[in-house]
Amino acid sequence: MSGFNVIGKPWPKVDALPKCTGETRYADDLHFPRMLYAKILRSPHAHARIRRIDVSRAQAVPGVHVVLTGRDLPTRFGILPVSQDEEALCVEKVRFVGDPVAAVAAVDEWTAEEALRLIEVEYEPLPALLTMEQALAESSVRIHEYGDGPNIHKLVSLEFGEVAEGFAQADYVREDIFFYAGSTHLPLEQHAAVAHYGPDGRLTLWSSTQTPHYVHRALAKVLGLPPHRIRVIAMPVGGGFGGKSDPFSHEIVVAKLALLTGRPVKITLTREEVFYVHRGRHPVLLWIKTGVRRDGTITAMHVRSFLDGGAYGSYGVATTYYTGALQTVTYKIPRYKFEGVRVFTNKPPCGPKRGHGTPQPRFALEVHLDKIAEDLGLDPIQMRRRQIVEAPSLTVNWLRISSCGLRACIDRVVEASGFREKFRRLPFGRGVGFACSAYLSGAGLPIYWNDMPHSGVQIKIDREGGVTVFCGSADIGQGSDSILAYIVAEILGILPEDVRVVTADTDLTPVDLGSYSSRVTVMAGNAAVEAAERLRRLLFRAAAERLDVPEDQLLARERRIFDQADPERGLDFAEAVQLAEARFGTLGAVGSYKPPKAPGRYKGAGVGPSPSYSYSACVAQVRVDPETGFVQVEKIWIAHDVGRAINPRLVEGQIHGSVYMGLGEALMEEHTFHSRLGVHTAPSMLDYKSPTPLEMPEVECFLIETEDPNGPFGAKEAGQGPLLPIPPAIANAVYDAIGVRIDEIPITPEKVLKGLEDKARGGSGRVGPTSIPSLTWPEPIRVEPPPEWRSSGDLT
Amino acid sequence: MLRLPPFRYYAPRSLEEALRILSDHGSQARIVAGGTDLYPKMKRRQIEPAVLVSVRRIPELAHLAGTGREGVTLGASLTLARVLAQDELVLAYPALARAFAMVAHPPVRSMGTVGGNLCVDTRCTYYDQTFFWREALGFCLKKDGTTCPVAPGGTRCWAVSSSDGAPVMIALGARLRLVGPRGERTIAAEEFYRDDGIRYLDKEPEEILVEVLLPPQEDWKSTYWKLRRRGSVDFPVLGVAVALRMESGWCREARIVLGAVGSCPKRIREAETLLEGNRLEPDVIAAVAHVVARSVRPLKNTDFLHLYRKKMASVFTQRALRELAGASLMDEASAC
Q1: Is B252 at the interface with chain A, CB within 8 A?
Q2: Same structural domain for residues A719 and A641?
Q3: Is A424 found in the same domain as A317?
C-alpha cells in the first residue's frame, strides 16, 4: 500500500448525503420572492425566414410581464470563437424545428405557456436540408453564410508523412465504411436557469451548466454588460455528459428578462426542449483504409469522416478534428492522413457528448482491425497488442504519450473473460468481442486563445483548522468537488470532511474552464496540489521552528504535523495553523495549472493534445436471438488505465456509467427525424429508447495504475474513455455470435435479422453503408512527423 | 415542465353519483382512475376534458372475489400491482399475470388500474406528442386535424390498440360489466373493442366499466408474449395472447388474439381452427404462426419497422404455442 492516507481510498463523495436525502438544490429548486417564469416559443419549421412577429396579443395577457424577440438580443454567440453563429432568439431565420424565436416572462409557467400561443409569427418556409447528402448537393440553399463551402461548416485535410509511401509498403490494404448514429445525452435533469438583476446593478445567473466561465463570457457579450457586473453560479448538475457545456439561449433569455423586469426569472426546459437544444453525438459516416504487413503491423492509415452537424456550429470544429486526432494514440501508425467535413443540416445542433467525436472513429477502427485480423488469419488481440504505442513517445501527429497501460488493460480483460477459450468457439448465437480505446485527460488548449492557466485554486484556512477550497470547476456528478477535497486533505494531512469545497461561482472562485474534455481531475487537481503544497510549506515552517525539527523531516497526516523520526514530537493541525498565522499573517494560497505546451506546430494541432491519455480494453459477451434479432449483452469486462485512482469507487462509478451509455448507443439510441419536415420523431423519454437497468449487463472492472507524470498523484481521466470500446466490442461480439457484420450503430434487431437473411440467401450478411458522398477535398496540410517516424525504411 | 390545463375534479363515493356527474357534463367529462395515461396526455393537450370524474373511491369498482376454479371478479379500479399481489389469481390466469406484470414499469403499475389498462387510449407516433410537435408536423385525424399521416389518403384513424390486458381478456373469454345511465350490461371482452383508432371502445362516455368477470379456468392453459424494445417501460408493439383448452395433449378449443398490430385486438380465427383437433406438433405450430403473421398488417406508426413486427407475429406465436406445449423458453423470453 502506498503511503497515502486519503488518496486511493473509497471515501464517500462530499455531496453524497444531501444527494441521497434529496436536499441537494438544483437550479430548478431555486425559488425567490416575486419570481417570474419564462417560456420560449420555438420554430415549427426546419428552415424558414421570419417575416413578421406580432407579440401584442401575448403582451396583453394578464400576468405577462415581458415578451422578447430576436431584436432584443441581436448579438450572436457560440462556444467557439470561430463559430459565433447562434442567436438567443432567432432574428431573421430559423434553422431547425425547435430553434428559439420568442420568449415570455409571466407570473407562472401556465400563463407564460398560454401567452406563447398568442404570439403570431409569419414564416416563409425555405427548403429543409435534412441529410448531409442533401446539404452538400443543394448549394443554392444556404443554412449559414459562413464556413468552408456551401453548407460546409468545416473542412479538414491533414497528412502526416507520405501515406502513399506507407501503403506501398503494405502487404494488405483494406477499406471499410461505417456509420454511427446520432444520440443524445439524456440527463435526468432538464436544463434550468434562474437570473436576478439586483438593485446594485449586478446580474446573477444560477444555471445547470458544465461551463460557468464560458456562460459568463457569452452573457457579457450578448447583454453588453461588463463581466464584473455578472456573476454565474453553476448549480449541482443532474447529469451533463456534454449536453450542458455550451452557453444556451435560455440562459441569455432569462438574464435579459431579469434585466428588463428587475425580478428573478426562472426557466426550466421541458424534456422535449432538451431534445431540441441537443448538442449530442454527431452522426458520423466514416471511411477508413489501412495498410498492414502480413503480420498485421500497420504501415499507413487514411480516414475520412463526414459529420452531420445540425443547424449550428457549437463545438463542431473541435468535434471534426476529434474524429481524426486520436486514432494514433493506441497503436503505432507511422503514416496517417485524415480528411474530415462537418456539414450543416436543418436539425438540432450536435456537439460534445461523452467521448466527444471519438466513439465514432473508435467504433470504425476497432471493427476494421478485427476484419483485417480475420482476413490475414491473425489473432485480433495479438495483432493489436504487439503494436501498442510506447511511453514516452510522440505519435505521428505530434501527440505526446506520457504513460500507457494498454498492454496491462488488454491482458486483464482477456484473462478474466476467458476470451481465448470463447472466441470463435461458443455455439451459434453467443459470442465475445474485443476492443481497445484511448481518451484525453483534458484538452491541451483552451477554447478561446489565451496564455493563462486552465484551472485555478485558492485555499483559505481558519484558525481552528478548517480548510476551504475555492475553484471554478463545476461538479456535474462525476465527483470533481470530492477530488479537490481528497487532494487537499491528503497534502495537508487532514480528512476530506475537514475540507469545505466552494466551486463554480464566477464571483468567488478562480477560473476553471469547466467540466468538459475529462479535464477536471488532472487540471483542477494539479492546481489544488500546488496550492495545498504552498500552504503546507507555511505550516511546516512554523511547526519546524516550534518543534525544532528540520522542515523536510516533517509529515502531515491524521490532523497532526509531526517529526517523521519521532512521531510523538508534533502539533495538532489547528495548532500549526495558529502558529503559522501568527508568524505569516492571514493564511491562504493559490495554485494554478496550465497543460504542457503541445509539441505540434501545424494548423489543427490544437485539437488532440492533452497532458495525458487514458486507455481502456474491453471484452463483451453477447447472446443474439437469431429469430428476433435481439442482442443481449451478458457481461462486460473492462480494464481502464486511470493513471492513479484517487478514489477507486468513483472511478468504477464512471466506468459503469460509461458502459451503460455505450450500451445504449450500441444497441438502441438514435436521433431520428421526419424525412421531409425534420421534426424529431421521438422527443421523449418514452419514445427515445435508452436502456433500462434490465438491459444493463454485469460489469467487471479492473483499474490499471500507471502513475502518469503529468497527473495529480499520477491520475488520468476516467469519465469518458471507458465508453469508447463498448460499441465496437459489442459489434465484434455480435459477429462472433452469428457471423454477421453490422457496420452501423445502433445494432438494432431489424438490422441483425436483415444481416442473417442476407447471409441465408448467400450474401455476405454485412449491414451498413456502402458509399460516401463525393467531395473535393482540399490539398492536405502536409506535416512532417516527429523525427522518430521519419525514416522511411523501417516503419515498424 | 408541461403544465396541466385547468379542469374540475370530482371524486364521487358511489356509482350513482359518478353516473350523475358524467351525464351532467356529457362529452366534457372523462373518467380517471390511476391517471398514468390520461394526465400526460392532458399535458400534451391530446385530451382536454373540462371535468374529471375519479372512480377510485367507488366501492363497487374495487371488488375482488373468486378463484380460478369458480371464476374471478376483478374490479376496474384495482391497481395492477394489487392484482399481481394475488398469488392464487396469478397462478390461475398466467397469461393475465404476465400481461399485467409487463405493463410499463413498477410505479405505473402501482397507480394504473385494470379498467384503465383495458380502456387505454390507442397510440400512434403522430398522436402521442406534445401540442407543439403536432402543430409542427400538422395535426392528425385523432386530434385537431383532418388527415392521417400514417395513411394520408384515407379517412380513418390507424392508432394502435396498446393494452397488454385487452388481448389476454379476449383470449381468456372474459366478460365486462358496464353501468350507464340506461342501466347495466355485460358483454364479451371481444365486443368491447372496435377497429377504429378514434372510437376504439364500444362504450358511451357516460358508461363506467365496473368489473371484469374471468371465467373458470378448468382445462385452459394460457400465455402472453409481448414485443417491445426494452425489458420494461415500453408499451407493446405486438402482443400475442393464446388460450388453449387441452385434453390429454389434444387442443380442443383455441383462442389466439393479437394485440398492438391494429386499432383493436385481433382474434385470428383461421389460426384457431387450424389448432383445434390437433396436437401442438412443430408443423402445426409453424402453420398456425404462418397464418397469424399473414393475418396482421401493422403500419408504420409505432416503434420498430412494421415489417419486422409482422415477422415477429409469427415468431412470437410459435413461442407462445411451444411454451404451452411444455417447452422451456426462458432464454428466448429473456430476450424480449
Answers
A1: no
A2: yes
A3: yes
C-alpha–C-alpha distance, residues A47 and A98, integer Å: 11
Q: Are residues A60 and A194 in the same domain?
A: yes
Q: Does residue A136 lie within any of the structural domains?
A: no
Q: What percent of chain A has pLDDT over 70?
A: 99
User: Cβ separation of B308 and A677 shorter than 8 Å?
Assistant: no
Tell me if chain A has a CB within 8 Å of the CB of B133. Answer: yes
**B232 in A contact zone (CB under 8 Å):** yes
Residues of chain A positioned with their CB less than 8 A from the CB of B315:
627-628
Question: CA nearest A569: which of A585, A598, A546?
Answer: A546
Give the CATH number for residue A223. 3.90.1170.50
* A156 within a domain of the structure (yes/no): no
The dihedral region occupied by A107, where left means phi > 0, alpha psi between -120 and 50, and beta the remainder, is alpha
Nearest Cα of chain B lies from the Cα of A267 at a distance, in angstroms, of 9
Domain boundary at A593, A628, A663, which? Answer: A593
Q: Which residues of chain B make contact with A45, given a CB cutoff of 8 A?
A: 136
Count up the domains in chain A and report the number.
3
Which of A564, A593, A622 is the endpoint of a domain? A593
For an interface test with B, give the residue of A47, A110, A670, A679 to mutate (most B CBs within 10 A). A679
Interface of B with A in 69-128 (CB under 8 A): 105, 125, 128
Candidates B46, B124, B229, partner chain A, best to mutate (most A CBs within 10 A): B229
Q: Does B311 touch chain A (CB under 8 A)?
A: yes
Least CB-CB distance to A679: which of B136, B232, B235?
B136
Domain shared by A556 and A688, yes or no:
no
Residue A534's domain spans which residues? 16-23+453-593
Minimum distance, in Å, between the CA of residue A632 and any CA atom of chain B: 7
Candidates A190, A753, A757: best to mutate against B (most CBs of B within 10 A) is A753
For B5, the closest chain A residue by CA position comes to A110
Residue of B nearest to A275 (CA): B133
Model-level ipTM above the cut of 0.85: yes
How far apart, in whole angstroms, are the C-alpha atoms of residue B22 and residue B49?
A: 12
**A151 domain-assigned:** no
Quick one: pLDDT at residue A796? 46
pLDDT (tens digit per residue) in A326-358: 999 999 999 999 999 999 999 999 999 999 999
| Gap between the Cα atoms of B329 and A227, Å rounded | 65
Q: Are residues A439 and A534 in the same domain?
A: no
Which domains does chain B carry? 59-119+160-214 (3.30.465.10), 220-335 (3.30.390.50)
pTM of the model: 0.97
Residue range A504-522: mean pLDDT, rounded: 98
Q: What is the CATH number of the domain that holds A487?
A: 3.30.365.10
Question: CB distance from A674 to chain B under 8 Å?
Answer: yes
**Residue B218: its pLDDT value, please?**
84
Q: Are residues A210 and A296 in the same domain?
A: no
Do residue A658 and residue A728 come from a single domain? Answer: yes
pLDDT in tens, B115-173: 999 999 999 999 999 999 999 999 999 999 999 999 998 899 999 999 999 999 999 99
Top residue of B230, B317, B334 to mutate, by most chain A CBs within 10 Å, is B230
Helix (H, G, I), strand (E, B) or coil at A289: strand
Is A687 within a domain? yes
